[in-house]
Amino acid sequence: MSDSKLEKEGKRKNKFSKLKYSMGFLLFEIIFTSITLVFIVFYGPFLNIKKTVVGAFMTSGRHQYVAKWFLSDADINKLTNTDLAHQKLSESTEKVNVDQINVEHKNDSDIERYDVDGKKFKGYMLIIHDPTRVKVGYTKNLGKEGQCTSVIAQENNAIAAINGGGFSDESSSGNSKYTGTGGNPIGILMSKGRVISNNSGNLSQKVPTMGIDVDGKLLVGNYSIEDLKSSNVTDAISFGPVLVINGKPQPITEEGGIAPRTAIGQRKDGAILLLVIDGRQLKSAGATYEDVRTAMLQYGAVNAINLDGGSSTTMYYNGDVINNPCDAVGERYVPSVVYVEN
């Protein structure tokens, strides 16, 4: 091989070696920065950042394990104020006054759709004029596997639906058999007058719940199975926090961070408000509980409650999923939905 060819070959190898070194250094910088950032977030002095990040992880049923890698359950509860929020709700004497709801539009098939825009989020609001059309549906494989919101809606001949109550992720208890399948609802699940599920097994235990009575009036707050039955509630699911009661914005002590959100509310004329806000995306980072409460009040809610959010957040309308669920595979399997009869 000539000297010129050897020189060119040497230069090529030298360039390749420098490129490998640069790429390796860049990879090291990315890994080092990521690890450092994680430790700063979870163990650093920035309390508000820590609350926001932990709240966002705990909102997601699938990614709670990330927060639990770094923090104990006691630390997580302290940061999210979950126990304190439940205690304050149980101590609250404010109850929904259903007498102030006057259902004015029975047998009205009209549904209004609006875009809801905030500084950091985009969402959708459906207004259902006849609240008696609004019901709770659930997966046909309860206890084993959930179904997509759109599938449960279609099986119930629904024109619209949002995802409903929360569910337990079996991996958190060491059993990964049904991880992420949405088959096991948390709290109360009632549909068309029947108690479908009550995982506490206690008929008098109060939990944050939304219920719809025989007249289409929405109840939100701390209720037990006994409370719901005595109030003639036919459909119910458990979640929270409560956002508005009797037109009054409720204090939110629970830290939830910024995340995709789902919520339900009711106006004085009986119209039901169904809200979803996309999150964990470039065009829509997500919303806080306060953002959701503000949106509900702006649309006239006198009673409202937050439902399961995170990657479960889904809105189905007129044959399509109209929001952008943030789960990598699209719609997530859930145990329950709130749907609108066609």
The gyration radius over C-alpha positions equals 24 Å
- Secondary-structure element order, as H and E? HHHHHEEEHEEEEEHEEEEEHEEEE
Please tell me the overall pLDDT.
85
Structural class: alpha+beta
Strand order of the largest sheet: 1-2-13-12-14-10-11
DSSP strand count: 17
Shape: elongated
Low-confidence stretches: 171-178
Helix content percent band: 25-40%
Amino-to-carboxy terminus distance: 81 Å
Let me know the largest β-sheet: 7 strands, antiparallel
Strand content: 25-35%
Count of helical regions? 8
Pfam families: NAGPA (PF09992)
Transmembrane segments: 21-43
Domain Phosphodiester glycosidase: 156-340
InterPro entries: NAGPA (IPR018711)
Topology:
Layout: H1 3-43, H2 47-59, H3 64-70, H4 73-80, H5 82-91, E1 111-117, E2 122-128, E3 134-138, H6 149-155, E4 158-163, E5 188-191, E6 194-198, E7 207-213, E8 218-223, H7 225-230, E9 233-238, E10 242-245, E11 248-249, E12 261-266, E13 272-277, H8 289-298, E14 303-307, E15 315-317, E16 320-321, E17 336-341
Antiparallel strand pairs: 1-2, 2-13, 3-17, 4-15, 4-17, 5-6, 5-9, 7-8, 7-9, 10-11, 10-14, 12-13, 12-14, 15-16
